[in-house]
Amino acid sequence: MFGCEAMTESLIDEDIRVAQTLPSRFYTEVHEFERLKSVFSGWQFAAHQSELQAHTIQPLEHIEAINGESMALIRSEETQCFSNVCTHRGMRLALEACTKNILQCRYHGRTFNLDGTLRHMPEFEQAIGFPSDTDNLNQFPLKQWMGMYFAAQEAVPDLPWAMLEERLGFLTPESFNHDAGRDRDHTVDANWLLYVDNYLEGFHIPYVHPELNQALDYSGYVTETFDGGVLQIGKAVKGDVKFDLPPGHPDEGQDIAAYYLWLFPNMMFNFYPWGLSVNVVIPVSHKQCRVLYRGYVSDAEMANQGAGSVLDTVEHQDQWVIEEVQKGMASRAYDRGRYSPTREQGVHHFHRMLSQQFN
How many domains does the chain have? Predict the structure, then answer.
């Protein structure tokens, strides 16, 4: 049981006008943190296809850090996701990205083909009933969407990929190239929930992000919720850089500076005229998380303009504010707050999604 009050849908009222936020214990107590780990078994961002061009084998260390499952993308005739654990004694197989035509365990020499099947195992000639299907690598669900791969621990419902592609497909993210110079790995002394809460509202922009506030028209900021995520739309101030939207686009005629897409529970995809910045939040403890940034570029010359030009500054500002909130969550004088009906629809939606996980 979750403390003295179970995590149920009724904990977060459906009506944002009367709803209260998550109680502070969800941000401060170890057993609440442990219980919420179950939400990470679904789709997780694995990689962009440009990251596989130079490698046939790509271990997904960040997914292992998120949910404990060691996985690897393996590119052969097609790209598939397999267990990265040897079926002999559990040794992790690929310890770094590489270009090989077989996987070999560094412990006892067992080898696997790139389709996950057992290739060879020394000293097993006298083993009865060997090999069997259990000696092959386990295959995990893998989804490719607009050039990005998503893996899951088990079969899970699809996200509304088609709906999202209708909105974002004009950007052709599959043509973007990974820019390792944009990669970051930040340790944040705050619960992962706070990082997501903060991402899901533009309410704080005028107060925390003065540089970003100069690039975005705060009055035109829009939040849209859907099953599985939230889309926030940042409008450009007059004369600033914006998307060249094609005819018939749902936002045709508007000056859009950025699309901020969040997919449950911990993935953020920030689309700018120059390309895409991906944030993946890794839960570490009840009071610490890591945030991985990955950059995928379509137009490097645009990267120093508009809302997407101050990412490092924005990240440091976000980190500062949520670390301060984490301290405040420990106060005996604070437990729950209220949502702004006009500005915090995304946070409310996230908390409702969390509560529905435990009905």
Answer: 2
